[in-house]
Amino acid sequence: MADEGESSSTSDLAMRGGGVVIGSSDGWLVTADDRGALRMANPATGSHADLSPITTLPFLSSSCSGNWFCLDVHSFLQIRTYTLTAAQMRQRFYRKVVLSSSSPPPPGSNTYAAMLLTDRHVGAPAFSTAADPSWRMAPSPDGVEDSIYHCGRFVSITYAGHVEAWRRDTGTGEFTSEAAAPRLDYANKLLRRKYLAAAPDGGQLMAVLKHSKEQEEEEGYGSSRGCKVTRVFFKVLVLDQASGRWEEAAEDIIGGAALFVGVNASVCVPARERRGISAGRVYFTDDEVGGACMRHARGAGVGHQRSSYDGEPADDTELQEAGVYSLKTGKVERIAGEHPRWPPPAWFTPSFP
């Protein structure tokens, strides 16, 4: 990580170069710009720094003055070599960056670490630390879907539901994983995404499951009645340490807490003394950066309702907007105000030294 010095700018620093937020940890935002560069900034303090160039990752090289990236990982992941433009890196290679709680590191510290989650077709994560800033890819046969920094280590969940903790070998610098909780054996064809979070009291591990389902709109008037719409709903599972099993959490189990999920962060916070945040809710955003980018490039908006008889796909406005899901009522409410759909909104928890 290279320091860039002092600056009074805040959010503009994170967004320069068309930056898209792909990580939010303890007050720090991580962005990917249209040149494929990864940066971090604290909007509350103005601190900022560059993460190591992605070209320090073995198997990846740039060409044409950094306009193209070539990924040659057939010996590692058994997938073919392919190339991406610099702007496509945040659409088809990066998914999320998770920072350790000591970011950025104080001078002389070797405790800083970052975990890069790659898009599903790659799946394997990469790690960078203060002691070894070059990105190192680590094996993950199932592909890592989400991760958090929990109890001093990175904890992740794979697309197959395996929950793993990652440890760095101080001798080789390589990261390897081991089981951290029972496999989340949850098969549901409506499941779209899995997130990890930790409860604010005691750090109990939680899994947040995002589902979507097409249905015909029963309310409304005229042409709106009978339209097919995609509805979003969530289930929250809590790891019971005593039984070693995942248990479904009702609204009263998460108590006075609220959950925030999205491609950039998944966090559980106490709702008390936080104006505008309601307990027993899941706050969510569009978590498909690639899809949001393509809609932006086409100039396509959301909210167009389609007839259930015209053969077109369902209106998926609810998937693409920031919303609030009530675990008690099972309904979604829009977050008041206008929110940009590109770049996708990001959750941010202010942090001061």
From TrEMBL:
<protein>
    <recommendedName>
        <fullName>KIB1-4 beta-propeller domain-containing protein</fullName>
    </recommendedName>
</protein>
<dbReference type="Pfam" id="PF03478">
    <property type="entry name" value="Beta-prop_KIB1-4"/>
</dbReference>
<feature type="domain" description="KIB1-4 beta-propeller">
    <location>
        <begin position="19"/>
        <end position="296"/>
    </location>
</feature>
<dbReference type="InterPro" id="IPR005174">
    <property type="entry name" value="KIB1-4_b-propeller"/>
</dbReference>
